[in-house]
Every structure is written in C-alpha cells, then in structure tokens.
Amino acid sequence: MKFADFVIPEAVRTDLKAEDKPGVIREMVKALEEAGGIDPAETESIIKAILKREELGSTGIGRGVAVPHTKHPSVNRLVGMVGVSQEGVDFNSLDGEKVYLFFLLISPPDRPGDHLRALENISLKLRNETFCRFLKQSKAPKDVVQLLEEADNNQFNA
Amino acid sequence: MDTRGNEQPKASRQATVVNPEGMHLRAASLLIQLARQFQCRVELSNHNGRADAKTTPLQLLVLGAQSGDRLTIEAVGPDAEEAVEAIAKLIEEGFQEPTEAE
Asked: Count of domains in chain A?
C-alpha cells in the first residue's frame, strides 16, 4: 500500500496548534472534514472513537511519531491525513518522547487488512531517518505531499 | 559475530498469528511491554524482515504480520527460554484481544 492510497492531500497540515492529545486529534479530524474526507455529521463520533482507542494504549510508535486511528462505519475506504506539530505534543508514547508527526487513519470496520498494510507502509518508510526528519521539518503541506510521493516512488530506501 | 566466551542461553520458537486483525499497533505495544519484562534480547522475524521486540512499535509494525503468518521469536540472555514461551503464548492467544469495545 502507498501513502497516496489513503492520505488525502488537502487534509495535510503542518501547523498543528494543539498542545494536548484531545486537542490535536480534534484538529486533525477537522482537517479531514474540511478536505471532504469524512461526513461532517460524523466528525464528533469519529473524534470520540479515536480518543477511546487512545485509552487502550497510546498510538505513539516511537521516534516522535503517532498513528491515532479508529474503525468507523461511516467510511467506505481507508482515509487518512498527515499532521505536523512544530512544538510537539505529549502523547504518552511508549518511549516517553513528544510527538511531532502524526498519521491519522480511519478505516471501515470490515477491512482490518488495509489498516495493517497502511501501518506497515508507514513504519517501513519511517525507518529511513532522512524521510522521517524531512517530514517533521516540513513547513507547508505541499512539502509533506511531495515527500510522501517520493517515498511512494521508493526514493527513500530503508 | 564472535561469540566465544559468551555462552548466553539462547531460545527460539515459532508462533502463528491467529487473531483476524494481525499484529496491529495495540498488539505490538502489548508484545513490547511483555518483552521488556525480561532481561534477554528478543527479536521477531518473518518473511518481511527482523525486528527488535523491546524498542518501539515502529520496529515491529514493519513486519506487517497478518493473521496466519508464522513469526520466529529468538531470545539471547539469562531468561531467554521464559521470554520466548511468554511471547509465543501472547501471539497464539491472539494478543489478548479485548472483546470489541463500542
């Protein structure tokens, strides 16, 4: 699976303002709503579901990256966005580090395989330190979109 | 690697992923928390590669282990045997998936 298969370019943000977990999740789901990635009537329900998932354990995966996610019946395919926080957010990651780079994923309940392949792709590509660092340093959404395209074309080798 | 004079106990075992969702993030996090309870070094591998089981979920997710995949667990250290057994049990019991919380 490629980033282009689930990241909605118009929803990418590099200026996340929120300083805590609930705030940053709300900001990212709103971005997905504004980009037409989700039904606005479902926004609150999606935010609630993502926060509920975080209660089971942080989705911070290390190296300053988190992948908040949920299954939600209102989507018929895997949709996602990328968010960058310049200041970092305390996300209760296993490694205790602040999170600067987020991949938000919402998947239909009946497609666990797609979710797993997206996680695999994200973690595989982030193994490349240059790619990971460039994403965190991105100042504009177009920079993120370009980096994701380059990664999809295997221009960053692990 | 030169291991002469370094007779650390070793253990390895295979385990099959049984839960329908595969080794997703919460499963990977549970496995890391379990692995960290042991002193030994633990690595997991499958057809996609090899990963340190004690660092971050980022490492384990690279394996993309789906339901039905065989994972090889290898440990080196004083409690290698116990670690391998405990981790195999976690995997084969479906990562103690809680019943769907809605």
From this structure: 1
**Would you place residue B2 in the very low, low, confident or very high pLDDT band (cuts 50, 70, 90)?**
low
Interface pTM, i.e. ipTM: 0.76
d(CA B64, CA A119): 8
Looking at residue B101, its pLDDT comes to: 43
Q: What is the CATH number of domain B10-93?
A: 3.30.1340.10
CB contact at 8 A, A121 and A2: yes
Using DSSP, state whether B16 is helix, strand or coil. strand
- The reply to whether A140 touches chain B by the CB within 8 Å rule is no
pLDDT, one tens digit per residue, over B43-98 is 999 999 999 999 889 889 989 999 999 999 999 999 999 999 999 999 999 998 55
* Domain that includes residue A54, residue range: 3-152
Alpha carbon of A104: minimum distance to chain B alpha carbons (Å): 13
Interatomic CA distance for residues B29 and A58, integer angstroms: 9
A111, A123, A125, A126: which to substitute to probe chain B, counting the most B Cβ within 10 Å?
Answer: A123
pTM of the predicted protein model: 0.86
By the 8 A CB rule, do B17 and B90 touch?
A: no
